[in-house]
Amino acid sequence: MKKLQILIIGLMIVTLALAGCTPPAEEPVVEEPVVEEPVVEEPEVEEPEVEEPEVEEPEVEEPEVEEPEVEEPEVEEPEPMNIALVPAGRIGMEGFMFLAGQGYKQAAADFGFEERVLESEEAEEWERNVRTVSQDGYDLVVGVGATMLDAVANVAPDFPDIMYALVDGYPGGDNTAGLIAQEQEGSFLAGALAAMMTTETSLENINEEKIIGFIGGMEVPSVVRWLSGFQQGAAYIDPDVQVQVAYVGSFRDPARAKELALAMFEEQGVDIIMSVSGSSGDVGVFEAVAETGFYGIGADVDWDDEVPGQILTSVLKRTDVAVYDIIARFIEGEFVTGEVMYGVASGVMDITDMANMGDAIPQSVRDTIDEIKEGITAGEIVVERPQ
Amino acid sequence: MKSGSEKKKRLASWKENFADVGAQLFNYLFILLASLLIGAIVILLSGKDPIAAYVALFDGAFGSGLKFADTLDRTTIMILAGIAGSIAFRTNIINLGLEGQLYIGAFAAAWVGFTFHGLPSYVHIPLCILAGVLGGALWTVPVIYLKLSWNIPVLVPTLMMNYIAIRFTEYLIAFPFRDPGAPMAGSPRLAQSARLPRLIQGSTINIGFILAILIAIIAFWFLFKTKTGYEMRMVGLNKDFAAAAGIPVNRSYILALTLSGGTIGLGGAMMIMGFFGRFLGGFSPGYGWDGFMIAIIAQNHPIGVLPAALFYGGLANGAMAMQSATGVPQAVVAMVKGTLVLSVTVKVFIEGMRKRLQQWVI
Question: Would you say residue B7 lies in a domain?
Fold first, then answer.
């Protein structure tokens, strides 16, 4: 029994010690290092609130001390920011994450901050990672992927002085920005193109019927936006154009996607299909395109080389442009919180130059697309965003 | 009351105990160092600096008050998983179903958390915890039935129940309880009154950690200081002997499975109520399996689970810091863990062999 008593007493001490740590978090953060870093890095202390470095940082940055000392008098460079990227996945893998990583790396190179990327595929780690860089006193944390909405939303209120940006979702709160892509603006261009091309019977396999197709992965908000833009674009050219819609029911089912595409081509008089069914689903649709000789339109990344000459274009979602832009805004002091929309005007939503199609797409069609693009940019053409 | 000789005896037994614990600690330290050394060799072979990697690892886990607190928070589920494994192992029940029991417990707690609103915290939290424990415990009932009715070893049914539990909860949040506003397949958010109070601002550590330590102490007391616990351990050591001595073997099995399931179910409840705030499909990266490893490292001792769980929690929290700072992949951490578990297993095996040899020789 004595052992048990000693144990309990020991644990009580631990608990008490923990309880002792309870008061506000500033304590551990404000500790000694505050004095060290500013003195080394920057003689004129401008923004004392920004510098809340961790204990380990001085160690890492000390070797660099020589550089700033040489540079600073000449260039008067602003104090380097600490900006971290926390993707809900791996930036080496999926196209969307890859682009975000590219934008971040480009920004790091251009603005001269040290790269720090915390990648993971576990839902738990996303929040842990956001929290880790927040505890390290980073100034801006960029999350990638709507799936980490909770992660940012849970951490941001704990660190009101740190700014958070999330690609594809707005976590809410005073210190977060949601980078929202206007997918419908990009697919508006694709819809207009498809509506013009579906009667271009000079092209092999294009029939006279004004029917085009759309295959989506699942009926989720982002896919609905893609579809809505596609429909609006088609109607803008010719209200009589019909859009056949089908959902695969999954973003990872190329077989079913291909089946749906074949059915559209062979039974419903469709000659052009836009596919937003996940990168593997898209492959299925484009297999059907290759086999039947009809035409397809890709989404998210550049699919034009998948079936050369049969993919009319791809609607690009340039996450890299959005990530670079928000970092640039932050560094220039123009960071805004709330929903930040990125559409055709910002260059985030765009379509490829259709180089693979060459003369198959008449110059008049290309000119019309350019006009529409300018119209959207200037705000003359308003593409409605479905909720 | 105490005569001199009794005092001396006690002192001697204390001394012996301390010597024993000391020897054990030394053994563990040696195994730990050896595991880290093997990890270091692999890091070295991959062309990275092992010392920098370990410094970053340690720093990520214990580098600041907040990081240490987060490490302790990660330890919570490890402690409960380790204890769940230990209780079953002590009774010689290999409960491979910890992962499934974790999911069911987590969902049950989440359901109570998001279904009822307007309850005060001191009612809502215990209710959620109760649901989590019951969920985990009841999920073992089919296994118990198979074991008692047809004497089917629990190994296979517990394992199979994992898949049922994981898919079943996935179904629940995909259809009947789906929150359309959730960014991924997940249940609605728990009511604020069902969230575990945080202990330190900026960290996720919550009262679940204290609860887990209490559970460890209770488990120790139960296994080693009560009659029922003694019976369970006897059944674990030799069920035929225990049966011959009049110990209710079946009751021990039932207790072992339900207590084990209830403990890991509590762990699931802690994850949902303390960390996620809603049930997410596939939220566990394998805590149930970690539970076995921790139990093995702790040699099924509830108090030994505490440092083993802390070690696991520290590795988990430091791994990402190590990867992002030095480029050493997190997989190295998994290797260190694996080596450690293997070493402990070998150590236990060798000790067992030595004892047997001694018995033969003498």
Answer: no
